[in-house]
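Q: A reviewer asked whether we had any structural model of the full assembly, not just the individual parts. We don't, so I'm hoping you can provide one. Inputs are below.
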Amino acid sequence: MKYLITVIAILISSWIYAQTTISGVVFNSKKEPVVGANVYLEGTYDGSTTNEYGAFSFNTNETNTQTLVVSYLSYETFTMLGDVSYMKDLKIKLREDVNTLDAVVLSAGTFQAGDNSKVNVLKPLDVVTTASALGDFVGALQTLPGTTTVAEDGRLFVRGGDANETQIFIDGIRVFTPYYPTTNNTPTRGRYSPFLFDGITFSTGGYSAEFGQALSSVLLLNTIDEPDQEKTDIGIMSVGATLGNTQKWKNSSLSVNTSYINLAPYNAVFPNRNDWIKPFETVSGESVFRKKTNLGLVKLYGAFDSTNFEIMQEDINNMDGLYFKLKNKNLYFNGSYQGVLNDNWSIQGGFSYTHAKNKFNVGDIVIGDTENSIHTKLKFKNRINNRFKLYLGTEYFATDFKENFNDLTIVNETYGYNNNLLAVFAEADIFISKNLAFKTGVRGEYSALLKQFTLAPRVSLAYKTSEKSQVSLAYGNFYQNPSSNVLKFSQDLNAQSTSHYIFNYQYNADRKLFRAEAYYKKYSDLVKYSDEFPDFNSAFNNDGSGYATGIDFFWRDSKSIKNLDYWISYSFLDTERDYRNYPEKARPNFANPHNLSVVGKYWINDWRSQVGFSYAFASGRTYTNPNEAGFLNYKTKSHNSLSINWAYLISPQKILYASVNNVLGFRNINGYQYANSPDINGNFNRRALKPAADQFFFVGFFWTISEDKKSNQLDNL
Amino acid sequence: MKHLIIITTLLFTGFINAQTNYEKGMQKAFELWGSNNSIEAANLFERIASAETDNWLPAYYAAQINIISSFGEKDEEKLSAQLKKAQDLINDATSISKENPEIMVLQALLYTAWVAFDGANYGMTLSPKVVEIYAKAEMLAPENPRVVYCKAEWNMGSARYFGQDITPYCKDLERAVELFTNFKPETPFHPKWGKERATQISESCGK
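A: Here is a predicted structure for the entire assembly that you could use as a starting point for your response.
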């Protein structure tokens, strides 16, 4: 009896410790063994590492149903639920993780700048280190292919589209008035400081269904999620001064930037072609507040600026020049939230409010206008798995625009419009494999102003042709309401539309990137009107149309030559359109066929300096010579500009920066203004439209003060 | 009585077994690591981490192995996969033990691996992050030898880059070596690495 009990006890204990052997082999989709994979029962110590044949075997005391996990770098983790006694001679296939670096990227039409994206064309820092850009993010993007050089304007003209066809978004929320106002012969700048953004996505066509009301292009700016440290930034420049401060708390942070620009001293030293009564002066301030919550991130962004100047501008019809005065106040507020709802769903929402007030005096005419706009957006993302992601969203735009007009005969004429628009969109990202992916979506919009519903499908696909190259195709329909200068006089119109067809090839290897992108763009329902500048008496219709086709090339190499980083962009554009008051189809004056841009940066370690240059070439632009028959019948000579810059690190926290735009002093001509009436010989006289100054010199000293004294002005380089 | 003893013994054996699984596992993992089987060691640490969901140490070591093997890695794809894995493990460890200076040091080392891989590209963006992490870790644990030593080594690197004097950091290193001598880890498995290298750099410092 005693023995029996002992035997039973031993049997029981050995039954308790009875071991099961789990074994099998792990291979990938190419049937190659995966070496070094971690195989184990979840929540236990029992497991093993696969050997050189991909085989594994281990013992376990666990019984019944367990989860077997197989994980390895760059593969999706495999899990299997089952009874351990059946886990023998398993054949396990690991799928490649589509989120790895070498997976295919849905990239047709887009340029990414950021640290996280897989294919970076620009780095955020390029905005401040590109010689010709002068710290303006728009200026840096103009060195990319697909843009055309319109030197006197400064805004983004993309693939035969005019500047109104590009929309700018901050944290996914629309910016209604992104540019500073300026005079006729001086390019504008983007209002927002490049230091507040860490990601820039510039799409020159075929973009996601999330974005609408843009015929040609969208520019997406993302503010920094979390600043690195507390600091104060001081900048003293030849044209003004800037002051910034960042404070951090446990879960939140606040960054404030202010700047004051006054061109009076600069104009006194370097006279220009304008006769200033009151030189350009602007005061601006912006701030970002960020707060992390348990499941998300709240960002509040606010910017205010006030600009004024007064000037006598050269004019062919006016011996004394044309008087022009401007006062502008602009307030922008943007709040956004992104967060996680549960394992699969995440949410993103936001709101923006713009208040813009302008007062112009042009000769005897006084115009005052006020724009109040809001945009709200709500977007859900469902990550069903790594290979299938679904996006759903809705957004609402409202603009209230009012203008007041006075001249010698008209007194206090007021007019305007309300533009309310509701949109819904749905989109899916589908990764068939690491080599093939689709994005497909649709966007519906209803405009209360135009009483019109539009439906815009978008599709793109990308296929990896080799380890380092891929091809992409994209197609999409895009709608945009007529611009403010039309809507304020007539609302009995339809949305304008384009279709994009894009083919893209990309080669990306070891800090060398080559892209070629061919496109065809068809415009329809463009707005036409009967006068040069639309007014109450103009007749409007939607009968305009046009096309744009071309090919863009981009090459960037940061590798071949030590410390040298350079890129080359070339765009060929063929476009004609019949819109506005055009009597026939013609190439618009903002669209030139050839644009070339070369940017280089060289780091000299011994001098702790970065020297850079930027060269831009643009072929001639069209203008109408009324002395000859025809419309837009002549072309200007081509545009050339070479800019150089030098940044010197005095110490880790102090930097000295100097740049010269158009260092060789090319005499560029942007077009011609002809007299309204002919002279006694029946000849229309003309005046060349030249930039306010051929060259621009800039010197600045920037100083970062932070507590640990180790922070780097390199960030600003 | 006999039965009781047998049963008690058996139960007790089982009990002991359950108790020491963690210690056995950790010991085994350190042995594997010591005998250059770092992949298997990392895998074992990961398995322990999956079983011990309230202990940050196994995830910490699994992350550390991935980070250490990234230094000197030339293949960007492999490096990025390893560091992504390490980041996930650091995130796991951090969610178990918040505001932990040891984990912060590891996070700083992860960024340093990127900077070491490609200074021109990652130096500008990640350096301020590293500086901030060390500043925070030092505030939490001014006497932690690894915080003092790793911070000093990082500072020496950037001072060399700017052609500045590195001697102020030699003092920090000397202090780190002193702190190492007096350092007592909380358990045998808590981090205690770094003394050798700190001593080595400290001895050659400024010479």
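A: Points you may want to mention in the reply: The CA atoms of residues 159 and 165 of chain B lie 7 Å apart. Residues 2-34 of chain B form the longest helix (33 residues).
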